[in-house]
Amino acid sequence: MAPRKIDSFGPDQLPVNLIAVAFGGIAIGGSVKLRLPPAIKILEALSAIGDGRVVVLDDKRAKVYSSDGSRVYRVYVDTQQGIAYSDDNGTKYRKYIGYPIIAFLMIRGVLPFDEKLANVLKGIPWRKLNETLRSYAAVERIVKEIVKSRGVEPEVLDSFVSKVMNSLRSLELYLKDMGTAWS
Fold first, then answer.
1. What is the rounded CA–CA span in Å between residue 30 and residue 55?
2. Confidence category of residue 29, pLDDT binned at 50, 70, 90
3. What's this model's pTM, rounded to 2 decimal places?
């Protein structure tokens, strides 16, 4: 069999170490250390909880539904072993801790949670905004306008995001490819 050029591989076929280097992650023993997420993903996680889109299956697994209900993300987190998995694009392809993992960790009490903010973020059409605007900064501006119209100052969001990011910095989570083993 002839060797294949790197650009002829699909994203699911690239070696984990190569993907890690391409996206700035650190590969250790075939696992990639997940990076901190864009700040907007903290708000998206709160919104998922507020909307009731997180279904906890057990202490390590959950399903998280996208804001428009068209996708279901599978989540696995074992904080004792420092491993995590989610099939959302941010986690799987960009190698950061995606909003489904963050939402699950908030529900489990591993990360800070604010019920008032979760309620204020209910009903935000995240998928539509992300796909239409294609800019986290633009989405964040719109979300902050919505939240302000609902009686919460944007600085309150910023403070909470900072608190969660600090907690995420203390976690060391490595991406575990669950493949077909996840059920």
1. 29
2. low
3. 0.83
